[in-house]
Amino acid sequence: MNFYTQQHKHYCGIDLHARAMYVCILDQPGNKLVHKNLPTTPEAFLCLIAPYREDLVVGVECMFTWYWLADLCQKEGIAFVLGHALSMKAIHGGKAKNDKIDAHKLAVLLRGGMFPQAYVYPSEMRATRDLLRRRCHLARKRAELLAHIHNTNSQYNLPEIGKRLANQSNREDVADHFPDPSVRKTIEVDVSLIDHYDELLSEVELYLTRSAKAHDVQTFARLQSVPGIGQILALVLLYEIHDITRFPRVQDFVSYCRLVKCAKESSGKKLGTSGKKIGNVHLRWAFAEAAVLFIRQSQPGKEYFGK
């Protein structure tokens, strides 16, 4: 857990929502200068902080609407810190909770050097990363449709389909495998959706590949040179990691990828593990897939795994 410890003249904590944000500004001694609710518009925010722009730092809890505020602060030359939501909950959890209290607590954490930081992903590659995540979501939905066809076949105890339905040519007459008209219509709907997903995914993957070559073609090529890492996994690693130097140690990176088990101990007793869901779920998936494919494609990997 990394804390923001730099000292400033003014500290601004914001409880940010989609249409409104509660702003609290403290001075160095800790006096409240502003404690106000306002709409989430750049004009309203800049007008409010105008008297306190000198050596100001803005802190916001990580949630889905922080992009515009981070970009605005970067454009205006204002220090911006993104708070790690899970760590922050453990620090400032209290009996009473509302937007006004949360904004003040964020400012207090900033001032006290106890503001847990999350990574502020730069805007240049951020939108492409989000598109890649959407692509992975669509691929999972496509897989669910394929599984539904096989599950329906088992549900009615019909003979095995015997074809790899991921290939489009094997799906053309799969609906005829089901005698019931309603079931057949269900399968036709599934097949139609899968065909549409295939077209959509091909289009998105082409766009992502071109974007990756424009952003960092060397890293993209190097990732694909590793046995077990193909085009999609290389895209995930490239855009989810972004800058490997943001991790001081290998251990920090592996922990971020959810690839280590954190021991839970008390008074010399081991109580199992904890924190297994803290980190990047997309990198966890990518490395799990890469490990399986590495063993499949690499002879040294097979020999090492077989020991």
What distance separates the N and C termini? 37 Å
| Average of the residue pLDDT scores | 94
Unreliable stretches covering 5 or more consecutive residues: none
CATH class of the largest domain: Alpha Beta
Strand composition percent: 15-25%
Estimated helix fraction: 40-55%
Strand order of the largest sheet: 1-7-6-5-2-3-4
The number of helical runs is: 10
Number of strands: 9
Which word captures the global form?
A: elongated
Structure commentary:
This protein has 307 residues and is α+β, with helices and mostly antiparallel strands. The chain has three domains: 3-118, 2-Layer Sandwich (Nucleotidyltransferase, domain 5); 125-216; 247-305, no CATH class. It has ten helices and nine strands. The protein has helices at 42-49, 67-76, 85-92, 99-112, 123-155, 181-224, 231-241, 250-256, 281-297, 299-305, and strands at 3-4, 10-16, 20-27, 32-39, 56-61, 79-83, 115-118, 262-266, 269-274. Strands 1-7-6-5-2-3-4 form a seven-stranded mixed sheet, with helices on both faces. Strands 8-9 form a two-stranded antiparallel sheet. α5 (123-155) crosses α7, α7 packs antiparallel against α9 (281-297) and α9 (281-297) crosses α10 (299-305). The model has no long low-confidence stretch (mean pLDDT 94).
